[in-house]
Amino acid sequence: MADLAVKSATAMADEPAGAGHNWPRNDGLDLDLSWVLDQRVNLSAAERRVVTLPGRRTVKKDAQAAWLLKAVTCIDLTTLNGDDTTERVRRLCAKARQPVRQDILDALGMGDRGITTGAVCVYHRFVSTAAEALEGSGIPVAAVSTGFPAGLVPHEVKLREIEASVADGAREIDIVITREHVLTGNWQALYDEMRDFRAACGDAHVKAILATGDLKTLRNVARASLVCMMAGADFIKTSTGKEGVNATLLVTLVMLRMIRAFEERTGIKVGYKPAGGISAAKDVLNYQLLMKEELGREWLEPDLFRIGASSLLADIERQLEHHVSGAYSALNRHPIG
């Protein structure tokens, strides 16, 4: 079984995680309201597109193992709970360094590939703890800032929180937009807010969380995605994971189409991060397939694709163990934190 995953899926898992930031930053551009207001979504066509995806595209056996290993390298391993502790964060960081058991990697011929998760995502309170635990690994710390998850604290407080997270060692900042700006069509306010966030991040990459479950319509999702990219977002992200509806393939399709339109017009590549509700290996495969079909192979790397998740990693590891052993193990044999 040695090297089967690499050979069967064109080196899907070849790239190390943590290198992460190899594309030029998105410096943004002036707000183009005519481009924003021109966005429409054909709901029935979009629904047909995502409903037919699982039946048209599947990966099995060795290829599936390779795709799942690639997914591991794109996970922002996350803990955003009210009962988080420093010890939990340290355990999470240890899992990020070794996300798949060594015996499983050895059986796949991947034992020497240095596979890690794409990042570790925590509240500001735990940024310095995570940065210390991950020192030397190349795995970046992502901090949720700007009054996560509601984003309803004063603007100046949001900016200070970003700056504090960067000072503590965060290399990525996941910000939350003010949903009111989208719901009232105040695109200038959303643009200005995002520009301030981008500036406060300095050298840290910024992921704009749209909280798509709160935006009511796919047209709002499309327009908010475009405005955030114009304002300099390096990634656009679906959700905080705290909304009633989080990442879906339908919302993903709309956001990927906006990323493609932005790249076609500007030449700037912007990343994508679905978050919330992605807990099964079979689900993440659908997101990967949609990414590849809509944006191409480059968007399957952690530079441009991240998955906000916690329990997903345990299910992926469980599926990989089944692939090499032929038997499923209990989930409690694959702890994450």
TrEMBL record:
GO cellular component, one term: cytoplasm
Organism: Sinorhizobium saheli
NCBIfam families for the chain: deoC (TIGR00126)
Region Disordered: start-end pairs: 1-23
Database matches in CDD domains: DeoC
Similarity annotation: Belongs to the DeoC/FbaB aldolase family. DeoC type 2 subfamily.
Catalysis performed (reactions): 2-deoxy-D-ribose 5-phosphate = D-glyceraldehyde 3-phosphate + acetaldehyde
Gene3D superfamilies recorded: Aldolase class I (3.20.20.70)
Single GO MF descriptor: deoxyribose-phosphate aldolase activity
Pathway(s) where this gene product acts: Carbohydrate degradation; 2-deoxy-D-ribose 1-phosphate degradation; D-glyceraldehyde 3-phosphate and acetaldehyde from 2-deoxy-alpha-D-ribose 1-phosphate: step 2/2
Protein's name in the database: Deoxyribose-phosphate aldolase
Gene Ontology annotations of biological process type: carbohydrate catabolic process; deoxyribonucleotide catabolic process
Matching InterPro entries: Aldolase_TIM, DeoC, DeoC/FbaB/LacD_aldolase
Keywords tagged on the record: Lyase, Schiff base
Enzyme class: lyase
Known EC number: 4.1.2.4
